[in-house]
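Project standup — Tuesday

K.O.: blocked on the structure for the chain from last sprint. Re-posting the sequence here as requested.
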Amino acid sequence: MIASVRTERDRVEEPGKGPRRRSRSLRRPAALAAVPIVLLLVSTFVRQPYAIPSSSMAPTLQAGDRVLVSTTAYRFGGRPERGDVVVFDGRGSFLPEEAGGPSGPLGLLHGAGSALGLTDPPGTEYVKRVVGIGGDRVRCCDERGRLLVNGDPVTESYLHPGDAPSAVRFDVVVPEGRLWVMGDHRSASSDSRDHLGDPGGGTVPLERVTGRVESVAWPPDRWTLLPPGRSVAKTGTHG
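H.V.: unblocked you, prediction finished:
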């Protein structure tokens, strides 16, 4: 009788055996359940995964690539630069203001899946390269077929092989607070050139920009960093 009492008492006095194990087992599911919430918060406020839906940015971005978009790149005084690859909401520029995706619970689920990179982005979002910023005069093209920004030809090493800078002639001055954007696969991209007659003349308001594409994260053999625009979009002298 004494031995059995002592054994029961020992179990109470040594909580590291039974109770602690049960506590750990309860904490694990809670921690696992918190992972998607943390990922969603991080993706919303810092890096947002994004699925590339088309080849309009090839060869820089291929259809099916998963990229990471810095959603803080322009939040603290920074602004898009020429050459930046950006994600933006096309409502009010590329699309009617009232355009949108699914609503209600289905819309919430789709939005969460898109934020985690599990589903395609909403139909109102686009990914393009910034060619002109507020105040720039962007023109196509000079006698050698080059794009001109403020009179200077632009070196566009990122263009899809075989593509001309543009088959569409245009001459625009970008309003302050807006961007002129184009795809790298110029012959397969619907971009600012296709919306010259729309409100804003094809330009995108800064407040509609979601962020800057920083890297290709998936598939593994496509992993690469995208440098800031100032190091890839270069203007030169006439010649």
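K.O.: great, moving the ticket to review. The mean pLDDT is 78. Residues 2-33 form one domain.
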